[in-house]
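Dear colleague,

Following up on yesterday's call, I've attached the two folding results inline so they're easy to grep. Please treat them as preliminary; we haven't cross-checked anything against experimental data yet. The first protein's sequence and structure tokens come first.
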Amino acid sequence: MARHNETGKKGELLAADYLQQQGFTILHSNWRHQRYEIDIIATRGDILHFIEVKTRQSLSYGLPEESVTHKKIRSIVTAGVAFQYQYPAWKRVQYDVLSIVITGQETPEYLFIEDVYL
């Protein structure tokens, strides 16, 4: 597996643990609709969260959250709409980004950006 794929997989595991510690219930990981994917679908309270996880092991290419483009957000929204169509019980939804930086032996740094809009 390529290093960036390993980093991404590790980040998604860290993200799930972090979100559960923050009171979220994880419903799905890597949920797919056609060519679209949502990294984590979770709930907290009465809100359904569609969460994009970005992980970096170095800041050489910038902060993880900087790699979430408008195009990526639109694809997450497209997948989110498809999810809502299949599971219409959720009235309140939110699109979020969880940025994780893993450097050496240090504790990962998390930045949770809620309610991302275009």
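Below is the second protein, in the same order (sequence, then structure):
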Amino acid sequence: MSSSYSSDPNNAASISNPSTPQSDKALPPLAPQPLSVSRSSSVEPNGPGSGSAVSSGNLRRLAAGTMLSGGRYRIEKSVASGGMGAVYRAIDTRFNRPCAVKEMLDEFQSDTERTQAVEWFGREATMLLDLNHPCIPRVRDFFVEGEKHYLVMDFIEGRTLGDILEKEGNVMGVNGARGVTEAQARSWGQQICSVLGYLHRQSPPIIFRDLKPSNIMVTERDEVKLIDFGIARTFQAQRQSTIIMTIGYAPPEQLHGMPEPRSDLYASGATLHRILTHHDAANNKPSIFSFPPVRTLRPDISMAFEQVIMKALAPAIEQRWINANEMEKAIINLPPINVVPPTGAIPQQGHSRLVNPQTPNNSITPSNPSRHTTTGPGGGYIISALGFINTNRIEEAYGAIQQAYVLEPNNSLVHRTFGQVFARRRPPEIERAMQAYNRSLQLNPNDAETHKLIGDVSLFLRRLPLQAIPAYTQSLRLNPNDVESHQRLAQCYEDTNQLEPALREYQEAARFAPKQPLLHQKVGQLAWRLNQFSIAERAFVTVLTLNPADHQTRFLLSQVYENEGKLIDAERECAYVVPMIPAAQQVQLRIRSRLGR
């Protein structure tokens, strides 16, 4: 899965505020890519840091292996680039974890252009440092090196909504319309509203100003992440500002230089309209602000969801949702999406028993419990729900497992699947997930997977690793060969500073998955911390056997050899990595001194 970051602080139309508003006819035509100000084509001959720069057309980018900030950040590859900057995947060598390094090139055609770009870049760093929301990447560092500005953030694995629409927006409508499923759009829309509500509640409110599919990433866990805060600004009522927008996603007041929080709601509606229909706003009639109703292009979309979107798209501010929280509540309270029964599982009876089924409470006693199976009358629905979960279509999974519950209320797998749905919703419904998992264990107490899922709730959702240990331990009693349970139990022990059992569990995980270098690396790191150098040596050698290009692990191995007194081996391994890791030179000199060289 690719990683997508916006790299250009001017990745939007920026128009000096005119004395009188421009008419629709004065707007530039909608381009296939977002409009941008002119970009500089001149570059400095040398890249920053200890590495070199490579040429891409008339631009120079950091080469793999370049070290920044005194050797702390090692560039791995470029993941996005623009005329004024680039974003790289890098390794933070201090913590041995991936990060995103955003670079702003200090190469501009005028002092005004440079001043504006530096202001936007600095504002983005300052703003993100003060924000804390699951949908906003965390900023880890900000520095200047080689006359270029750098911003270090969490590295987010995922794709933009624009990429998803182009590659997976295959639900066909009419007149050439196509897009993602309603369930996907609901889930993403709710998360977008949640983060917009958070931004708008800041004092003063922060307006994102350029919300669109290319500025919204979705992770493998279906979590939305807003990217490119370079043009976000705080809101000051009755004050005109530079017009910054992407045509088709910006409302009329933004064109006139008067954006406010509800301008972002308009953009969220335009984004949802786009990913559901693939409709180009340039075709709107009679003006670019007149979107066709969603159901005229996608008749399969529910009327209630269409109303949520079209209200957000009202050209008049006062006709939109009052705020992002109201829009989010409207999405959450939408009626369930109708699920088409899967082949072979059409219900024969009992539909009137449960109009809006929920996972039943723990007091229900099974009269004829079925265990962990998909062979019963609800099997087709269960298989369908699990398929939806695997593709992050959580609300569709919920609809399918509701149907399965009507047919098999005492099937443990039905309740386990309910738990997975509740746990994967955004935000997660933790208590309902635990209720469902506990009910599943009442019906089938020896299901190792359910015990593991309970551990996942404590570790990943509640962030309480100590509470997760008993669940993972029980899961492993029932299934001792489960690599994931060993790895997660090891993580729990490590997070609670129980290093000996953490090492033991990582060793078990590596034994069952010998081709996974990350597991061997964890074994080596923990063994080193525990001064068990022979174990660390074997682990790091295994990592290098699997991936000889892992220079960081080779550097660690050289230090293990040094601690073992194997100075010749230590000097040899250290010499390999000095060109890539400048900090290794000091270690190399120390080893050579010990060798008398």
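For the second protein, one point worth flagging: Residues 250 and 267 are 6 Å apart (CA to CA).

Best wishes,
A.L.
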